[in-house]
Design a protein that fits this description.
The chain is α+β, with helices and mostly antiparallel strands and 246 residues long. 24% of the residues lie in helices and 32% in strands. It has six helices and 13 strands. The strands form two sheets. Strands 1, 2, 3, 4, 5, 12 and 13 form a seven-stranded mixed beta sheet that branches. α1 links the parallel β2 and β3. α1 crosses α6 and α3 runs parallel beside α4. The longest helix has 16 residues. The chain starts with a strand and ends with a strand.
Length: 246
């Protein structure tokens, strides 16, 4: 997995980690160890704490992983973005998606981040619905939001609650590069952490982004299998992305 760096031409290699952390209800020490070992520039969280004193838990996660809070959490109904100090936050916005009666309301955490002088990356962190019809509609909303963020280099990261042959996953992958399919690295399956049988977590990028590697960081130095099982009920997806200079 390539290390983070800024190239002489102004392009930047950015490490992005997508992780469903189940509201930090499991082994938070193991969670922090996994994140630190992955050394992400951007951490896209799903199921961030979103109820009583949720900001305290967000601050704790940032502190224990050496990252800083960017946006999201309860204000996005779960998706949250953290980053390293390497990223300059140009703007951020939390977006609530339409509510379907009887179903949990979903939202997006979004940000435009700059690395070095001019390498700009738009990030959308999402956690799509368990209901197939709503999930498909939300995939379209994610693409609409991404298109309106004003950055050619853009990425969607999240728990899609859908496998690659599902309608929502296919809708996203028709417009974006599926990181694992484009440049597979590490492991493929993400759910569950104890017995992974499905790939429902993904990182997808626009054509302006070069995917250098993407997958579950099993075997990455510092990432213990016991920690992956104890941290939460999903496995994370780590991607190395080359973002061009503007």
């Amino acid at each position: 997995m390539p290390a983070s760096r800024t190239e002489p031409d102004g392009s930047a290699v950015v490490r992005l980690l997508s992780y469903n952390i189940r509201s930090m209800r499991d082994d938070t020490d193991a969670l922090a160890r996994v994140v630190r070992a992955c050394a992400p520039d951007v951490l896209c969280v799903q199921e961030a704490p979103r109820f009583f004193r949720w900001r305290k838990y967000a601050a704790r996660l940032a502190r224990e992983t050496g990252l800083v809070y960017v946006t999201g959490g309860a204000t996005a109904t779960g998706p949250m973005i953290l980053s390293s100090l390497r990223a300059a936050v140009e703007r951020s916005e939390d977006v609530l998606l339409p509510r379907t009666p009887g179903l949990h309301r979903r939202g997006l955490a979004t940000a435009v981040l700059r690395f070095g002088p001019s390498a700009r990356l738009a990030v959308v962190c999402c956690h799509l619905s368990l209901a197939e019809k709503e999930r498909y509609a939300q995939a379209g909303m994610v693409l609409d939001r991404l298109a309106g963020m004003g950055a050619d280099a853009a990425v969607v990261a999240g728990d899609l609650n859908d496998e690659p042959d599902g309608r929502a996953f296919r809708r996203l992958a028709a417009a974006l590069q599926d990181g694992w399919a484009t440049s597979p690295w590490g492991g493929e399956l993400t759910s569950t952490a104890a017995e992974p049988r499905k790939r429902i977590d993904a990182v997808l990028a626009t054509g302006a982004v070069e995917v250098l590697g993407c997958g579950v960081p099993a075997g990455l130095p510092g990432v213990a299998e016991a920690d992956l099982r104890a941290a939460t009920d999903h496995l994370p997806v780590l991607a190395a992305l080359r973002v061009p200079a503007a």
